[in-house]
Amino acid sequence: MKLFGTAGIRGTLWEKVTPELAMNLGKAVGTYINGKTVAVARDGRTSSVMLQSALISGLLSMGTEVLDFGLIPTPALAWGTQEYGDGGVMITASHNPPTDNGIKVFNGDGTEFYVEQEEELEELVFSGNFRKAAWSEIKTVKAIDVIDDYIGAVLDFVNHETNLKVLYDGANGAGSVLAPYLLREMGAKVMSVNAHVDGHFPGRKPEPRYENIAYLGELARELGVDLVIAQDGDADRIAVFDERGNYINEDTVIALFAKLYVEEHGGGTVVVSIDTGSRIDHVVENAGGRVVRIPLGQPHDGIKRYGAIFAAEPWKLVHPRFGPWIDSFVTMGLLIKLMDERGKPLSQIIREEIPTYYLTKKNVKCPDEHKREAMERAYRVLEEKLGADVKEILTISGYRLQLKDGSWVLVRPSGTEPKIRVVVEAPSERRRDELFKLAYGTVRKAVEEAMKNKRG
């Protein structure tokens, strides 16, 4: 059994994520860092206090000192871990449904645990070979409020005041306790929706995909705002609308920052996940930099391996000069600063600086036990049907078929949910639609055949 996916441990409460697992993981983390100091925080899900309490019990039983940061966003936990701890643990299922929860582990420098570290934790959990503390070694839990200090650190890094009008959607998640106040401290005129924490997520689904937040476009036009910012359940993800109410594709946001960093550095390496698009390559290469694609869930590893000046996945941006973790709050601050410095609305900046490509993403439901066979079946069909057009095949986090005309098809299994993700991008809408029909239909059929074969 594998505990960790592409973003920590995540799954349905009681089926995968339980208080027993949280306690044992606490014991494993306490053993791994040998009784030092661990920062712990949680998101606003209904089960998070329960899981955090179990995790803390496990940590304490290993002689670990615990810093309780309470209910805060994941980026603030990463920053606080770097400031105060030898390790950190966040109780969150990020953008997953309210029925789910999860656990994410951080090193003392704020990086998420690397793959090899997660494997070592899994081995400890399954073996039960924990470091048990004597009664005299058991330490305490110290409650620390890091929100104000974290806001101050972001403000110092961004170093900008604004008078832009910003609409914020917190998804009833943990970002709601921080983002409106950060924006206000920057001088922005802030309006908020879904900005009270509620683990049932009554306002909308926590994942900031366009279909979940499309209503923000109309709100932007009605309210006459300069920018719309939406977050997910633990506020590491960020989605953006411009002043016209247009949703800004997540690859466009990445391309905008990648271009900015490469121009500032006069070159450099940008690492992005396997499911990102060609507009990033276009702007980075034109600015004198290079793009390296890496597996999902490993931007921190890419920064370390390639000395990257910037790293990103869709909706998740890492600013290494601030810290080696995904940070939507730094992203929103720097985006506002960019708009003010350009002296132009966001729609104009994008029109002038970022090329247009056409991308479609859609998921196919697939139980975890059928993913491998379905992936293999779909790969054989797609390789055969696209063979003459294929320029390169990348086999990280699934497989990506890069085509000679600049189009690409990505099929990958979700590391956190029972789904297979299909992503297609092309230089024209017609080509995109043609490729997506083929890829999505192929994956759906492959899943059906894999499930039928298993039943047979």
TrEMBL record:
Residues 363-435 form the Alpha-D-phosphohexomutase C-terminal domain. The keyword Phosphoprotein applies. Its cofactor is Mg(2+). GO terms for biological process: carbohydrate metabolic process. Residues 2-130, 149-245, 250-357 form the Alpha-D-phosphohexomutase alpha/beta/alpha domain. It comes from the Archaea. Keywords: Isomerase, Magnesium, Metal-binding, Phosphoprotein. GO terms for molecular function: magnesium ion binding; phosphoglucosamine mutase activity; phosphomannomutase activity. InterPro entries: A-D-PHexomutase_a/b/a-I, A-D-PHexomutase_a/b/a-I/II/III, A-D-PHexomutase_a/b/a-II, A-D-PHexomutase_a/b/a-III, A-D-PHexomutase_C, A-D-PHexomutase_C_sf, A-D-PHexomutase_CS, Alpha-D-phosphohexomutase_SF. It is an enzyme of class 5 (isomerase). The keyword Isomerase applies. Its EC number is 5.4.2.10. NCBIfam families: Arch_GlmM (TIGR03990). Belongs to the phosphohexose mutase family. PANTHER family: PHOSPHOGLUCOSAMINE MUTASE-RELATED, PHOSPHOHEXOSE MUTASE. This is Phosphoglucosamine mutase.
